[in-house]
Amino acid sequence: MKIERFEDLEIWKEAREICKFVYGVTSRDLFNKDFKFRDQIRASSGSIMDNIAEGFERGGNKEFAQFFYISKGSCGETRSQAYRAFDCKYISETELQQFIKITITESAKIANLIKYLKDTDLKGAKFHLVIQGSKLFKMVQSSRMFKVVQFGSRLFNVQNGSKWFKVQSQD
């Protein structure tokens, strides 16, 4: 399956399910009345999926990995808050175990993706450039065109609007 949008990522879909689970649990009477705690666990669970999406949209693996670290931290925060919810008798033992299982599983998957991003030679969508003649490069995934000025035999300055990037030729 080709991944073109963050919505295509299984890890984002699973994070969305965590968020829905949290909203369901926190909508019940006692939990729903503890506004600050309810909002805090909703925010941390939402942060899991939101940071996966934001990292994906950045287009570079370094940034993607950085947002995965934040997302992974939000998994831990949500899991910790589940223990507090259990201690406050807002959730049952069964719900606590479900929280633990889904957040640990998601955290492990995020850790695996971070490792993959760190180990791969691919640098992300915004760095996948191909020559479109002597003066233009085209970004493969976004199809945006760039003005290119040669800067030595293998190093180029690439202009996208007012931003300049240095790109090394893979020849």
Structure description:
The protein is of the alpha+beta class. The protein folds into 2 domains: 6-119, Up-down Bundle (de novo design (two linked rop proteins)), CATH 1.20.1440; 128-168, no CATH class. It is 58% helix and 15% strand. Strands 1-2-3-4-5 form a 5-stranded antiparallel sheet, with no helix packed on it. Helix 1 (10-26) packs antiparallel against helix 5, helix 3 packs antiparallel against helix 4 and helix 4 packs antiparallel against helix 5 (93-119). It is elongated, with a radius of gyration of 21 Å. The two termini are 29 Å apart.
SSE blueprint:
Layout: H1 10-26, H2 29-33, H3 35-58, H4 61-87, H5 93-119, E1 129-131, E2 136-139, E3 145-150, E4 155-160, E5 163-168
Antiparallel strand pairs: 1-2, 2-3, 3-4, 4-5
Helix pairs in contact: 1-3, 1-5, 3-4, 4-5
Uncertain runs? 126-164
The residue-averaged pLDDT reads 79
- State the total count of DSSP E strands: 5
Binned strand content:
5-15%
CATH architect. name of the largest domain: Up-down Bundle
Structural class: alpha+beta
Text of the CATH class of the largest domain: Mainly Alpha
Question: How many domains, as an integer?
Answer: 2
Strand order of the largest sheet: 1-2-3-4-5
State the helical fraction: 55-70%
